[in-house]
Fold these 2 entries.
Entry 1:
Amino acid sequence: MKRGLFLLLMAVFCSVLTATAQTSNLWLNCPEKPIASATLYCNIPDKSQDAGTKTVIVNEFAALAQQLKVAKSPKDKNINYEVLIDNTVDVGAEGFSVESNDKGGYTIKAKTAAGALYGTYSLMRAYKIGKPMQKWTDMPRFQVRILNHWDNPDGSVERGYAGRSIWFDGGKINFRSDIETYARANASVGINGTVIDNVNADPKVLDKEILSGVKTIADRLRPYNIKVYLAVNFSSPAALGGLKTSDPLDNDVIDWWKKKVDEIYTLIPNFGGFLVKANSEGLPGPMDFGRTHADGANMLAKALKPHGGIVMWRAFVYNPQGGDRAKQAYEEFMPLDGKFDDNVIIQIKNGPVDFQPREPFSPLFGAMKKTQTMAELQITQEYLGYSDHLCYLATMWKEFMDYPTFHGNQSVVQTTLNQKLTAFSAVANTGTMKNWCGYVMAQANWYAFGRLAWNPWISARQIAKEWVMQTITKDEKAVNTICDIMMESREAVTNYMTPLGLHHLMGWSDHWGPEPWTSIPGAREDWLPRYYHKADKYGLGFNRSSKNGGSNAVEQYQEPLRSMYDDPRLCPKEMVLWFHHLPWNYCFNDGKTLWQSLNDHYNGGVQQVVNFQKTWQSLKGSVPESIFKEVEGKLEVQLDEAQWWRDGCMQYFQTFSNMPLLFAPKYTLEQCKAKLRTKSYVERQKD
Ligand code: BDP
């Protein structure tokens, strides 16, 4: 073979390898190795319980330096990089300081091995995205920064769009060889906890065999400072233990949980605790026995307390008899304020209904003054286009986190910070697919969650920029272009799916495409879109105001939010149909009618995707070819589905408004309905 051709083939081969690695290693690739030569000294003793973390630190330096020597003694004159456990630094339990030294390298100091690990990743990021500063310190703002995996023992993933479970298969723990890649990715952004099983928990996760597998996972994650937690089924004492009841005040039940917790801690000394979904969507809970959420949570908390474990008790509760679903969590939990033990924290979804593209914040934030609370976000795009739509979620999360609650002048996120135990969680989007998330652009959301759990004050754009530079390209123009698309993407999705505060218009069980028309005989009313959009001849939207027979959900917010949401003239337009049922010809302050505005948003969202496509084409050559192609292909799917959403929703609403469409649809209403039945997402994934 001619030398030129050989070199060309090699170059192509290598670029394919790099591009593949770029996605499967998430944002952790560092092909250019920015440090020429490092002699590293780390004072974590080789035989200590933190030896595993030391190995990780050394490996990270090896990934960063073209040449690495590890010094055995601090007296080695060549040392230019130091990672030191030092009790005198004032950086909290997991924080660190990084400072350039006179040897041209850096010295990282921390109180613990965990802090040293995070300092190492911080330095690594600084090198990868530019030149590190001379000196900085940092520490996480939340103590528990945790992913919730909705993985089932049979290997399926509830609302997972990236293949099967990375934890389970066939009723057993699945020991993946590359779980360290997952652990590294998490540690690099500061995530320090993982709930490995679904909130719709199978009692089986507490059986001996699974627990011994969980131990292995916990051992492998420990060097990365990641604790394992389990979601548990409240009826485990009866379902697994064979007891007659699971009543939290029954002595045998109390004893069963205590023994189970002791068994877990014997296996896993650093076990984190439990996550519980109780009396929600058909799951068992303390109310089955006439007890309260507090009775249930405190009983588990008392079993965990001697070991330092915590209970994350979910506030995602509603039932069809309970009136407006958006009000129910508040109504059920507010009377219990102050009744929870100090190792219980109430896990609240960002919005009062579910993880919709746009919701107001849950009014429980700030209102529960004597109870510890934490936010639950959703990284997996259950309601935002699965792993097919480019939808950067950090802008949505920031909107939620920064919203003023008017409880003591605190933003939503601040209300979860001023307490003894602090935590921040999100439902993961990982699966067995080679690139972990089913779409390279979906990895950004995992990254962003970790960064925000570490520091909720970083801007969404800054996070996007960091991620793009580590994952896709460092070309400045391309970075800015990709960030522009990312920053606009969530608004685009909201526009073509559920603009102006509409919500829950999606498919009945798979939550995929538009289905505002659905009617399922015998189905729960509060699972059907019509319950939420209330389209009729008069108009559209859910009246949650205090007037004209509204549900008065507005009363759960502090003034001046209450009055603002209560008045359609003052209510932010992007949320108006969440709080009001408005006539089709209602005229907004901007001079547009409701019908016109709906047209503009739905069609505007589609145009935004068309623009993303055009802009993406301009990046050809400045991003790796495999990523270019992946995004190009996904944007085609996204455009088609955006058109489907627009055409389905608008033509369905038109059957009530009888007003003309202000754009040319691609699909008829009948085609939109038929499209739902053509192929399910799961089937498409198999193609
Ligand atoms: C809904 C999901 C469902 C979850 C539930 C939950 O559709 O699969 O079990 O939330 O969070 O959004 O418990």
Note: The first strand starts at residue 35 and ends at 42.
Entry 2:
Amino acid sequence: MRIGFIGLGNMGAAMAANLLKAGHEVTAYNRSADKVAPLVAQGARAATSVADACQGDIVITMLANDDAVEAVTFGADGILAGLSAGAVHVSSSTISVALAERLTAAHSEAGHGFVSAPVFGRPEAAAAAKLFVVAAGKSAAVATASPIFDAIGQRTFVVGEAPEAASLVKISGNFLIASVIESLGEAMALVGKAGVDKQQYLELLTSTLFDAPVYRTYGGLLARETFTPAGFAATLGLKDVKLALSAGEQLQVPLPVASLLRDRFLTLLATGGGDLDWSAVGALSAWEAGGKPPA
Ligand code: NAD
């Protein structure tokens, strides 16, 4: 399949590489061109512009946030103008429900397909083609995109025909992960200050009632106190908590824990931790208990 790939950050670079490995023809674009060269070495063609990446059957965006997806889609020479009729835009970024709705309407008007297909899994999972894809869109568009999902992930969950549903499910999942990071950080600060070994504590948790990837992955980062390089930056973590809050506001669903998490992320950013992995938000508790700031 001829695929355009836009956004070669922590996640996009690995996802695009797996599309090449699966035999797809990939034309890659990134705002800063230096990120394209490693992919060209793996067989991709470098796009000269966003429009140049829109010549195939599908274009995938894996960009940071709503602003980036809006700029690349609606901007001059953007996806909306560049994609041919019948082609499909697959948005894998974690974006707001409101933007997913706007993209759905705009692409429909232009005669394009649109699928929201955010993913669960960090850059290591992306590199190993082990992502979980949450997809929603018209069934024909989802079917067109399914070889892509097979190449980047271990399993795809189709959550209906309304793309915004996939975005909402993804946002709710990241809210849950952030809640675990915060509570795990508080629990570890408690036992850690009393002198219990954090690795041993984590081993106990994950061998008993908390045997889940989210506890293993984030517990490991918190026990090792390793927050650089960021697999998922704290700035993006704040973005996702805010997306949960705005979805809650739109649907009139109070999310008191998300309100608290928003303030925790603001504390992390205000104290210089914006570029740290988002798991550093869980290390604020140990700092507040007299320990060191996360770094
Ligand atoms: P990243 O910061 O590493 O990469 C972001 C990409 O967006 C870069 O290619 C950058 O050039 C591009 N970009 C940013 N602003 C832009 C703009 N205005 N115009 C054009 N391009 C712009 O981010 P990432 O970690 O790869 O995450 C990408 C998306 O995937 C985000 O929505 C994130 O929430 C989501 N996500 C990340 C992870 C993770 O663990 N890193 C996991 C699942 C989902």
Note: The longest helix spans residues 163-193.
